Amino acid sequence: MDDPRRIRLIMELRRAGIIDTGVLSALERVPREEFVLSNFGDQAYENTALPIEHGQTISQPYVVAFMTQALALGPRMRVLEIGTGSGYQAAVLSGLCRRVYTVERYRSLLRQAEGRFRKLGIGNIVTRVGDGYLGWPEQSPFERILVTAAAPEAPRALKEQLAVGGVMIVPVGRSGANQDVVRVRRSEEGYSCDRLLPVRFVPLVEGIAEGA
Ligand code: SAH
């Protein structure tokens, strides 16, 4: 890793409060330029969200780092991600846990993300076209769940698929309005929530995208 733009981005994330060295080195290892549209390659290491196909976005590196840090991953954990998009967040997660299960409603986005995982030699991500509101019940419970699109509230099926002792990170709020990254913790007694960071995400949309 000797690209000065990448080093500069990691330093910027550190200054912005990302202190988990595991998270920083996971970001350092994933070449973000492989995940952005080719005409945005020169902006791949700027700390901004960028457009991908179907009006979706690859999240801002700071937000990826913040949500990954908030998950407090362990190397043996199984993680469910909702909203594969470019695959960048899944690739970052894959370096920090045992296996990533990622769900995307656009088949074409998922196929491209799978191609990137193959090219980069990442073997611990499994993918599925589906409606992320429904999660991945056959593989549940998950110790960690990360949602990368905004929902009006933490989806019920996802809360149910969270293991006891587990953590879900989810942007909550209406699209175009104020949204916050929320941490949901599940214990024997039930669920507790706290708001961590104001954000702006594309909406979590119900159903799979037909023909795309
Ligand atoms: N994690 C992505 C960010 C993707 S943006 C990355 O690193 O690039 C959010 C993604 O969520 C979009 O690709 C969008 O199509 C997807 N999405 C929205 N609603 C969904 C749903 N109900 N189920 C699955 N994916 C959904």
Describe this structure in words.
This protein has 212 residues and is α/β, with parallel strands linked by helices. It has one domain (4-199): 3-Layer(aba) Sandwich (Rossmann fold), CATH 3.40.50.150. It has six helices and nine strands. Strands 5-4-3-6-7-8-9 form a seven-stranded mixed beta sheet. A two-stranded antiparallel sheet has the order 1-2. The longest helix is centred in the middle third of the chain and has 13 residues, at 107-119. The chain starts with a helix and ends in a 13-residue tail after the last strand. The mean pLDDT is 96. The structure holds S-adenosyl-L-homocysteine. S-adenosyl-L-homocysteine is lined by residues 56-59, 82-83, 85-86, 88-89, 103-106, 109, 131-133, 148-149, 202, 204-206.
User: Radius of gyration over alpha carbons?
Assistant: 16 Å
Output the structural class: alpha/beta
- Strand arrangement within the widest β-sheet reads 5-4-3-6-7-8-9
Q: Could you name the CATH class? A: Alpha Beta
Number of domains: 1
The number of distinct β-strands equals: 9
Number of helices: 6
Uncertain regions spanning at least 5 consecutive residues: none
Rough shape? globular
Q: Remind me, CATH topology? A: Rossmann fold
Question: What letter string, H or E per element, gives the SSE order?
Answer: HHEEHEHEHEEHEEE
Largest sheet: 7 strands, mixed
User: What's the architecture in CATH terms?
Assistant: 3-Layer(aba) Sandwich
In helices, the fraction of residues equals: 25-40%
